[in-house]
């Protein structure tokens, strides 16, 4: 072998060896990963069906290498234990409503829903994706040892009432069931707020323990029979005009993912946010007709009345920050965007 050929052979061998050494790293990046996820919703509900679409989309985007086994609400742990279970690594991913933990982490009151806040879910989603909301939500969860991936944003939840309510002022003195930040805001508007479990709303309305209530979306409430006990629906649902539920992961499990798998989670989450929102728009139009067929009157509040109450609610929002720096930053950002939209 000539010296020239020998040098070429050695160079090729070195390059081949380097490639061989690199291959295990590539293989590891594309290795199969299996996670478990607990949803926020019961099996058979529309939101749960969309969580099925979410895990299917993640698998599709990763050529079947990233598999997430989906469980319905409470299947792995009771819903109120999911936060700590994911943090401890009992399972890797949950769908949650940030407001459940707002008592411990004030920022979560504003990354879940804002009473009298953004009336259009596109506006709320724009705050997350265009004005730093995602980063602020991630900062809030990071302090709790968890990783916020992305929100699912959709529209209002209605109020069901046994009495006719045609204005914000009409709510004062009435007994209302609200939870979280909505209970504080509605209380500041003169509502006699009564805390009550979701499962108790039907009987509470039926027995007169409450006059009106928040419970869930229009379709879920219809399926729960609220048309039988409350002959008025009040729209818009000013206590929860837009809603964000959240995909939240165990930080160690998330950090161990290759970047392509992290991207798959983000892409699938944003796709599901839009598609679920569109499905709910269609469902709402259909189910309102069913309510009317059962004698329920749908009342729409005057937009000017709602806008005036929104300005008053700002004081309640600021109080709910408990002077926490991050919560204050979030609220100031949201108020600034609402002002630019002419909402405040």
Low-confidence stretches: 2-29
**Share of residues in strands:** 15-25%
Q: Structural class, please?
A: alpha/beta
Could you give a short account of the major beta sheet? 6 strands, mixed
Q: End-to-end span in angstroms?
A: 83 Å
Give a short overview.
With 344 residues, this protein is of the alpha/beta class.
Topology (elements, then pairings):
Blueprint: H1 3-29, E1 33-38, H2 46-61, E2 66-71, H3 82-88, E3 93-96, H4 121-130, H5 133-142, E4 146-154, E5 159-161, E6 175-177, H6 181-188, E7 192-193, H7 201-207, E8 212-214, H8 218-223, H9 226-229, E9 232-235, E10 243-250, H10 251-255, H11 259-293, E11 297-300, H12 303-320, H13 325-340
Parallel strand pairs: 1-2, 1-3, 6-7, 6-8, 9-11
Antiparallel strand pairs: 3-10, 4-10, 5-8, 5-9
Helix pairs in contact: 2-11, 4-5, 6-12
Question: Which key features would you list for this structure?
Answer:
344 residues, disordered N terminus, 5-stranded mixed β-sheet, 11 strands, alpha/beta
Task: Describe the overall structure.
The chain is α/β, with parallel strands linked by helices and 344 residues long. It contains 13 helices and eleven strands. The strands form two sheets. Strands 7-6-8-5-9-11 form a six-stranded mixed β-sheet, sandwiched between helices. Helix 2 links the parallel strand 1 and strand 2. Helix 2 runs antiparallel to helix 11. Mean pLDDT is 91; it is low at 2-29.
């Amino acid at each position: 072998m000539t010296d020239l050929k020998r040098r070429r052979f050695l160079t090729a061998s070195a390059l081949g060896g380097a490639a061989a050494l690199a291959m295990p790293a590539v293989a590891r990046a594309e290795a199969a990963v299996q996670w478990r996820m607990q949803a926020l919703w019961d099996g058979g509900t529309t939101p749960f069906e969309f969580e099925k679409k979410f895990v299917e989309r993640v698998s599709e985007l990763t050529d079947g290498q990233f598999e997430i086994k989906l469980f319905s609400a409470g299947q792995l742990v009771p819903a109120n234990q999911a936060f700590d279970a994911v943090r401890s690594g009992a399972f890797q991913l949950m769908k949650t409503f940030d407001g459940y933990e707002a008592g411990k982490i004030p920022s979560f009151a504003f990354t879940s829903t804002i009473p009298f806040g953004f009336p259009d879910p596109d506006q709320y989603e724009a705050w997350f994706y265009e004005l730093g909301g995602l980063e602020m939500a991630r900062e809030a969860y990071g302090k709790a040892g968890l990783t916020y991936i992305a929100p699912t944003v959709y529209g209002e939840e209605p109020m069901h009432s046994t009495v006719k309510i045609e204005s914000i002022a009409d709510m004062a003195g009435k007994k209302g069931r609200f939870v979280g930040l909505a209970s504080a805001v509605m209380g500041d508007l003169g509502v006699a707020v009564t805390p009550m479990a979701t499962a108790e709303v039907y009987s509470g309305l039926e027995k007169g323990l409450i006059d009106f209530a928040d419970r869930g979306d229009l379709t879920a409430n219809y399926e729960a029979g609220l048309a039988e006990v409350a002959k008025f629906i009040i729209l818009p649902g000013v206590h929860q005009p837009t809603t964000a539920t959240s995909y939240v992961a165990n930080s160690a499990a998330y950090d161990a993912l290759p970047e392509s798998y992290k991207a798959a989670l983000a892409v699938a989450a944003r796709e599901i946010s839009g598609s679920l929102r569109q499905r709910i728009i269609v469902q709402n139009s259909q189910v309102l007709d069913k309510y009317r067929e059962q004698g329920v009157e749908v009342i729409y509040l005057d937009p000017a009345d709602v806008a005036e109450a929104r300005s008053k609610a700002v004081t309640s929002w600021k109080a709910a920050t408990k002077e926490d720096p991050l919560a204050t930053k979030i609220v100031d950002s949201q108020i600034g965007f609402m002002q630019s939209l002419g909402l405040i």
